[in-house]
Design brief:
It contains three helices and 19 strands. It has helices spanning 230-240, 250-253, 263-273, and strands spanning 4-7, 12-14, 29-33, 39-41, 46-49, 53-61, 68-75, 78-81, 85-87, 92-101, 105-113, 118-120, 130-132, 140-145, 151-156, 169-177, 184-197, 202-205, 208-214. The strands form four sheets. Strands 9, 11, 14, 15, 17, 18 and 19 form a seven-stranded mixed sheet that branches. Strand 6 (53-61) and strand 7 form a beta hairpin. It is elongated and about 80 Å long.
């Protein structure tokens, strides 16, 4: 059903072989991989990528006709990805962007496609909120919303410096979830991915999709990051002082459920953290 496929390590692909004519007496086939160190295939045509490289998955009729078909598999050695994440309506979350690379990478760009009701946060000057990780030593990252509704990000180095290490997060994008967004599971996609190597060679990366699961806010989780920490207590204090944070979930802040937000709720969060 396909002759070429790009996979990431540990990713699977279901291949299907069509037998013609449909009333053939013997429809049995055998599946094989030209290099089982790169990818393996089971008797039902399910391919699993193992390590970077190229190999061929072949299906052959066993009736003696020697009829066959094949699919070229390219297992990526440089992988950009995001993990499944959780959030709450009216909340915010930091979305890590990960890179595992064998090549020496100096820069990259990608588009982030978000579901309706989810957006990239902006600061007081309307700048996209995105920060780099410790892997990024001499790079800048910029983000902007495109006319198609996606957000584009570019990570670059003016001196063509390479990213440090070969795995881990390279950036964190702050997302806001609208209060009217329904509880459930949503797709987040990274598209139009280009990685730049030290010799200025561009590597085009396949589009990838992950899941964002929205759940009900936990009592005490005032910023909607699905964790209850001292930051939530500080947010309540700021709210009382009329210095309300950009994300503040009042329902979650009413820890003692008395329909008021007071210092008692902040103390309740501290006690919750201390298991009191």
């Amino acid at each position: 059903n396909t002759t070429n496929a790009e996979l990431m390590p540990d990713e699977t692909l279901q291949l299907k072989a069509t037998i013609s004519p449909s009333n053939a007496t013997n429809k049995s086939v055998e599946w094989s991989s030209s290099n089982e160190n790169i990818a393996i295939v089971d008797d039902a045509g399910l391919v699993k990528a193992l390590s970077p490289g190229e190999c061929e998955i072949k299906v052959t009729a066993v009736d003696g006709s020697k009829k066959s078909a094949s699919c070229k598999i390219n297992v990526l050695q440089d992988v950009l990805f995001i993990e499944n994440s959780k959030g709450v309506p009216s909340g915010t979350l930091a979305l890590p962007i990960y890179l595992q690379n064998k090549s020496t990478i100096t820069g990259l760009q990608f588009e982030l496609a978000l579901p309706e009701g989810v957006s990239v946060a902006t600061d007081n000057t309307d700048n996209i909120m995105v920060t780099v990780s410790d892997r990024v030593t001499d790079h800048s990252i910029m983000g902007a919303k495109l006319s198609n509704g996606n957000y584009q990000f570019i990570l670059f180095s003016g001196s063509s410096s390479a990213l440090s290490d070969n795995e881990g997060a390279i950036a964190y994008v702050t997302l806001n979830v609208d209060e009217n967004t329904a509880i459930g599971e949503y797709d987040i996609a990274i598209k139009e991915i280009e990685l730049t190597k030290t010799n200025s060679e561009l590597i085009h990366h396949k589009d990838i999709t992950t899941k964002l699961t929205l759940v009900n806010a936990t009592t005490g989780d005032t910023n909607g990051d699905t964790k209850v920490t001292v930051t939530d207590a500080v947010s309540i204090v700021n709210y009382i002082l009329e210095k309300t944070p950009s994300v503040f979930i009042q329902k979650a802040a009413d820890v003692n459920n008395d329909s008021e937000i007071t210092i008692t709720d902040a103390v309740g969060i501290i006690n919750q953290i201390l298991n009191k």
